[in-house]
Amino acid sequence: RLEDEQAGNTDDNNSEPKHLETVEDYKKKQRSQKIEKTQNEVDETTSMKRPALIAKKSLIKSNQELLMLLTSGFQALKYGRSGLPKMKVISFIIDKDIFEWKNCAERRSSFLDMISSKKGKDEKKETFLSLNDIIEIRRGVHTNILKRYSSDLDPHCCLSFVSTKRSLDLVFKSEIGRDEVVKALQYLVDMKGLIETIKFPL
Predict the structure, then answer these.
(1) Which residues lie closer than 8 Å to 38 by C-beta, 6 or more apart?
(2) Is 125 left (phi over 0), alpha (psi -120 to 50) or beta?
(3) How far apart are the first and last CA of the chain?
(4) CA–CA distance, 85 with 128 (Å, rounded to integer)
(5) What is the CA 69 to chain-centroid distance, rounded?
(6) Is residue 79 within 8 Å of residue 157, measured between CB atoms?
(7) What is the pLDDT of residues 171-200, one digit of tens each?
(8) What H or E segment, with its residue span, contains residue 88?
(9) Residue 81's closest CA among 133, 116, 126, 117?
(10) How many Cα atoms within 13 Å fall on the side-chain side of residue 104?
(11) Does the pLDDT value for residue 114 go beyond 90?
(12) 159 within 8 A of 170, measured Cβ to Cβ
């Protein structure tokens, strides 16, 4: 009997630490669940605010990229009243509110600029179009100039800046490239408060 009692005491001694360890684990588990619940609530609140913040940031970035596309210049084939079409770089000069076009490989020195400035007025050609003179920006083949080449052109790649005096007629390599420029122009027109003046007919 003594041996049994000693064995019983030994089991009781062993069971007590196990019981205490279980209680401690339970408390730790409760603390962990409480922390996890709090963290989930924080994450849920943050996730509700994040889409609006991301959308706002992406919109700002997108607008900056659109304006950069115009100010840094984009390439297109320019069709004129006479001669063959030529590849040009068209840029928007933001402090003058004009669209200017130059040859892609044009790198004129100050000396050449000085010589060209001495040429007569008859020899000079206008290489810019004022934003304020534009009344329409039209996709497709609509102007008289582009209509002359309509059989060779893809209307989905064509774009015309129509003013009261003339038109700037461009053909892009792809429809995607043209539509990116149109989107940038729409943003520019809206930014300048000319949305009622310059139309974008389809």
Answers:
(1) none
(2) beta
(3) 104
(4) 17
(5) 9
(6) no
(7) 999 999 999 999 999 999 999 999 889 999
(8) strand 86-93
(9) 126
(10) 9
(11) no
(12) yes
